[in-house]
Amino acid sequence: MMIPATRRAFRSAAVGLLIALFAVVPAMAHETTVKGTVAAIETARIQVKTGEEKQGQAPAWYPIDAKTKIMRGKATLSFGDAKISTGERVVVLLDHDAKGVMKTLEIRLAER
Fold this sequence. Notes:
Elements (H helix, E strand, L loop, with lengths): L3 H21 L5 E13 L2 E5 L10 E4 L5 E4 L2 E3 L1 H4 L6 E8 L5 E8 L3
Parallel strand pairs: 4-7
Antiparallel strand pairs: 1-2, 1-6, 2-3, 4-5, 6-7
């Protein structure tokens, strides 16, 4: 049987561990991969049709910024040099931060 001081210390340590665990989990990034075809493209966003859209539902848009890496095959290109066109296959790597803000980390396209 534990003595009261040891029990209290054990309980405090367990509570501290739980608090630390719950503080770390939301801070972790949540990366997602979306595969589909380019439905539309603009300089600030890309629309990807995955085939999982419900009838009448438009494909999702994903933001593009200066930090978004664009790859065609193994080459990293600028947005303009990638010449992304509608209908081509695409893989988009996304990240949702703890605040729920979605960022497009990478856009992958097939070689031409």
